[in-house]
Amino acid sequence: MQMASRLFAALAAAAILIATPAVAQEAKPKAAATKAAATPPGGKDIFPQAYFDFMLKQRTASGQPDSPELRQAIRDELNTRELVVREAKKQGLDKTLKTEMDLTSQTVLVRTFVADYAKAHPVSDAAVHAEYDKIKATMGDKEYKVRHILVENEADAKDIIASLQKGEKFEKLAERSKDTGSKANGGDLDWNTPSNFVKPFADAMVATPKGKFTTTPVQTQFGWHVIEVDDIRDAKIPSYDQVKPQLEQRMQAQVIDQYLKDLRAKNGY
C-alpha cells in the first residue's frame, strides 16, 4: 500500500503542474523539464486519443480555454500516467489493486447511469409547485415560541403544573426535564411551526394562548409534556422561488430512490 501511495503522489504532483494555463505559463522552464521527462523517446504519444479528447473536454468545460499550452499539458500528464501505469504493472500492482480498481470502475458506471436516468425522468415544475403548496399548508400561518418540560409520567407532569399555578418559574422547573437539549435553556424550543412537532404536542401548543401554559399534561411517544407558549407571530414562509432548487433536488432523489427500490424488487432483493 505504501508503494501505491507513492505512485498516487507522483500522479498528483504531475496534475498540479498542469492545473491551469496560467501556472504553466509562469513556470515555463519547469514545464519544459516536465515535458522532457514525460514524453517518451521519439516524442510520440503513448496514450489513446480518446483519453486526450475526454480530458480536453473536461478541462474546457471547467472554464480553461483551449490553447496549445493546455493541450501540451494534457499530453504530458497522459504520457506520465501511462509510463507510471506500465511501471506499476511491472510490479504487479494492477493485480494487487484489482478489487479496488473494479469498484472504482463500477462507481463511474453507476454514477453515469443514475445521472442519465435523472435527465430522462425530470421532476416537472407542476409537481414541484404542488409539493411546495402541500408543505406550506402543513406549516400553517403562525409560528410559536415555546418551552416545554418532558417527564416520565403523568403524575410528575401534574406536579409541575401545580407548581406553575403557585407561581414557580417555568425555567426553574425545566431542570426536571428529560429533554437534555432544552433543559439547560429553561425548556426553550425557540420558534417553530406546528408541523415541526408530533400532533398531540402541536395541537396543545396551538390551543394554548400566548403567555400561558398547558393546564393538563400532554402525552406523546416521548413522555409527558408541560408546554408554555411565550410568543406567537405570523409565519415567515420562504417563497416558491427560494426553495424550488432544494425541493427539486429532493424530489429528483425520491425518483431515483423509487427506481432503485423497484429494480431490487424486480430482481428479488
How would you portray this structure in words?
By secondary structure, the chain is of the alpha+beta class. The protein folds into three domains: 2-96, no CATH class; 110-140 and 237-269, no CATH class; 142-234, Chitinase A, domain 3 (Roll). Helix content is 62%, strand content 11%. Helix 4 crosses helix 5 and helix 8 (125-139) packs across helix 13.
Domain count? 3
- Look at the helices and sheets and give the structural class: alpha+beta
The number of helical segments is 13
Nearest-angstrom radius of gyration?
A: 31 Å
The H-and-E topology, N to C, reads as: HHHHHHHHEHHHEHEEH
For the largest beta-sheet, the strand count, sense and barrel status come to: 4 strands, antiparallel
Shape: elongated
Strand order of the largest sheet: 2-1-4-3
Number of strands: 4
Quaternary assembly: single chain
Strand content: 5-15%
Q: What is the average per-residue confidence, as pLDDT, rounded to a whole number?
A: 86
| Helicity level | 55-70%
Q: Which regions have little confidence, pLDDT < 50, spanning 5+ residues?
A: 1-39
How far apart the termini lie comes to 35 Å
